[in-house]
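Support case: manganese (II) ion complex. Customer-provided input:
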Amino acid sequence: TEIETELRAALLDSQFVLHYQGQVDGDGLLTGAEALVRWQHPTRGLVGPAGFIAIAETSGLILPLGRWVLRTACEQLALWSASAATAHFTIAVNVSVRQFLQRDFVEETLAIVRESGIDPACLKLELTETLMIEGVEETIGKMHALREHGICFSLDDFGTGYSSLSYLKRLPLDQLKIDQSFVRDVLDDPNDASIARSVVALGKSLGLKIIAEGVETEAQRNFLAGIGCDHWQGYLFSRPVDARTLEELAA
Ligand code: G
Ligand code: G
Ligand code: MN
Ligand code: NA
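Agent response - structure generated as follows:
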């Protein structure tokens, strides 16, 4: 299709950029950021992932695009590691199902980590529950292989997909991410509050850290803190911004 051709050209022409959204701990300190890809389109301006990730996935372009995202995020982390104010930063990178299940994903990821010179423990890969449908055993195997080298894992969009608790306990995860669809109305919708409470309790009982995304107000933050949530991401702390703007927040 036309957009597919355009995407292919955009990759060659370096039209993609990463924005970074801060992640904050219980003391309100910036611990790092999630990398979020954007397309700097020559005529349409800055295009968000909703406008191209799905097409990149079906066309297979997600493989070179995903490699570019991972490499760029690791190079940014290497720069942050070398600077006092940001030396402790971790970086979270979204990995699509197709990308993760690609045959060479483990080797490629380890090569990127090695070449960028980052501490692998500062790299957190965000996976989604869909991986459990597409290939449980392969997913678990690859996670263990990467974890042996120190790489961490967060389960993104948790609760929105196919959550089988029996798989959850087998995944070598470090963190659960409460999806923003539960956070948005957590103060007004008792069902969302119940889900949030259950996710935190479940995650904690499995020894995981819990990050809430889409936190926009102090009231949401306080409620979530009250039920045991310990890390935050959302407009209350920072929008997705370019690397330099994020550095200013850390200063
Ligand atoms: O960036 P936004 O702020 O609009 O992100 C929307 C969605 O796009 C996110 O939920 C995320 O899962 C997805 N996304 C953002 N960046 C990437 C990326 O680099 N790779 C993949 N696979 N998905 C991404
Ligand atoms: O990968 P994931 O689905 O988790 O990506 C996070 C998405 O959530 C991005 O599209 C990001 O721009 C968006 N986001 C992050 N914080 C907030 C927030 O506080 N409010 C809203 N409405 N969206 C947010
Ligand atoms: Mn994410
Ligand atoms: Na999410």
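The first strand starts at residue 16 and ends at 25.

Case will auto-close in a few days if no follow-up is received.
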